[in-house]
Amino acid sequence: MAVATDKLMLDAAYEREKNDPDRVYMTQPVGGGRTVDYTWAETMNQARRMAAYLRSLDLPANSHIALISKNCAHFVMCDLAIWMAGHATVALYPTLNAETVAYILDHSDSRLVFIGKLDDWEDMREGIPAELPKIALPLAPETDFPTWDDIIASQEPIPDNPSPDPEQTALICYTSGSTGRPKGVMHSHRSAAIPAQNFGLELKITPEDRVLSYLPLAHVMERATVECASFYNGLHIYFADRLDTFLEDLRRARPTVFISVPRLWLKFQLGVFQKFPEQKLQRLLKIPIVRGIVRRKVLDGLGLADVRIAGSGSAPLPPDLIDWYDTLGLHIIEGYGMSEDFAYSHMSTPEKRKAGHVGVPWSNVETRISPQGEIEIKSPGNMVGYYKEPQMTAECYTDDGFFRTGDRGEYTEDGLLRITGRVKELFKTSKGKYVAPVPIENILNSDSHVELSCVSGSGRPACYAVLQLPEELRGRLKEPAFREEMTPKLEALLERVNSQVEGYEQLQFLAVVSDEWQTANNFLTPTLKIKRDVIESTYDPYLDDWYAAKKKVIWQD
Predict the structure, then answer these.
(1) DSSP secondary-structure letter at 85?
(2) β-sheet bridge partners, residue 407
(3) Residue 427: its H or E element
(4) Sheet-wide strand order for 210-213
């Protein structure tokens, strides 16, 4: 593997500005099917002008400047401008409620906030203090705030190429809050630089590659592997417009690099099954003379026909789902990382890749499994620490500098890591046995009739699972005929799951609920992970009746 240098992100961006000024760097949809291209020269010119304005405010060195926006070209320009001005960025998820927005802005000591492209502005605007200076980006909701365009029109671009101290804070990534209050994960310019370089070096990404950026840039995976990596590898970033234009956006970008999360990979599969019945598709893929045509047609329909690097992160992919994409010729590379290591610890390779495993450690990452089964990591991407939480920071590192991930795992003989659950998610049934819910959920989630699941049963005689069905099935939940049709299929799923787990892990029943688990109602984190405590507390009042019913499948009324 090529070795990363000490080149910082800003230095890499200056090189792109000098060497590739006229190459299109970002393509931004602006509505109505129209797009705007930004070259490296235009990107850096706008960033330099905003940096001049930020310098004029005479903020203390390395001040924290917040950014609330969906993915867009000016998100990247904001980061560059903030770093050029000598400050650190604090990106907030664009789906947060006002209470969480207020908490993060206060906790992070943000001195200014950029407001960008948002769908739920009315839900979060009350969380922004009136006295906090605000700047509206070009695609922001209508406000009376000073605008980006007006500000840069009044400023001359900074002429110098400021390069920060490598140990200076570059960004604070607030965790998605699946385990309580969001924590501010601090990364320096150095801890971001080496991972950002190596993503491109290892995967041989070049300026000829294209990527669609739609996973939240406030999350470290997209920030590291797309935005920060692009300063080094120079690939062309396309942005998605809206959820209902996603397929159009994909076809416009024709990505060669496509990164997603398990829930979306599953949605793509379910969308294929709506057009190609599953059994028919499998038969066609076994016929040599038509296999290539069918594969191309399916991938064309998804907008993924040009993809040469398909990646997945955030959570393990069900093995059956990986195998299914393999039959289409789309070989998904899984990775494993955290906010705390800048998404940089493990990645599959063509030589070392196995369904149900998340890859091998990067060559410059040390890993081990503790006696308690916890994965511990020493990565060049390891964080500086949690903002304002020195004790919490100290507690999450071992005496010899390994980060305690909180994830349980095990390695195969050839070094592949399998995640077996979260240390703190283990629960004990009344039989006294500890159960790890995630591996059981992975089996459930691999079934085409399940979108999300939550396995629980603390203090109960046996485990159970709550299920959310895919969107196209949820509208029929109240139909007696639909329930009659689905019950035997779910009973078969229950039997299949129970045949693959230990006796004490077996599920007594599956409960199908009608609630939609979304970020808006706090069932999911902004990165689409389930909030286990919210789900468990929501359905706890039903449990006595569900257990007493003695049924394998229970339908919530």
Answers:
(1) T
(2) 422
(3) strand 427-428
(4) 34-39, 24-31, 236-239, 210-213, 257-260, 309-312, 332-336, 346-347, 360-361
CA 438 to chain centroid, in Å, comes to: 18
* Pairing between β-strand 385-386 and β-strand 236-239 as defined by DSSP bridges: unpaired
Q: Which residues pair with 374 in a beta bridge?
A: 408
Contacts of 354 by beta carbon, 8 Å cutoff, 6+ apart: 348, 412, 416
Q: Report pLDDT for 156.
A: 97
Looking at residue 1, its pLDDT comes to 45
* Beta carbons within 8 Å of 399's beta carbon, 6+ residues apart: none
Which pLDDT does position 192 carry in this prediction?
A: 96
pLDDT at 3: 52
Name, in order, each residue with C-beta under 8 angstroms of 289's C-beta and a sequence gap of 6 or more: none
Pair 214, 204: CB distance under 8 Å:
no
Which residues pair with residue 200 across a beta bridge?
none
Q: Residue 184 contacts by C-beta under 8 Å, 6 or more apart in sequence?
A: 90, 104, 107, 108, 172, 173, 174, 386, 387, 388, 389
State the Cα–Cα distance between residues 66 and 133, nearest whole angstrom: 10
- Confidence at residue 176, expressed as pLDDT on a 0 to 100 scale: 67
DSSP codes, 434-492: EE-HHHHHHHHHTSTT-SEEEEE-TTSSSEEEEEE--HHHHTTTT-HHHHHHHHHHHHH
Report yes or no: 477 and 514 within 8 Å, Cβ to Cβ: yes
Q: What letter would DSSP give residue 261?
A: -
129: three-class secondary structure by DSSP = coil
Q: Which residues of the chain have pLDDT under 50?
A: 1
pTM beyond cutoff 0.90: no
Question: Residue 350: left (phi > 0), alpha (psi -120 to 50), or beta?
Answer: alpha
Measured distance CA(34)–CA(29) in Å, rounded: 6
Residue 84, number of CB atoms within 10 A of its CB: 26
User: Looking up tokens 């491109």, which residue turns up?
Assistant: 200
Strands 553-555, 507-512: parallel, antiparallel or unpaired by DSSP? parallel
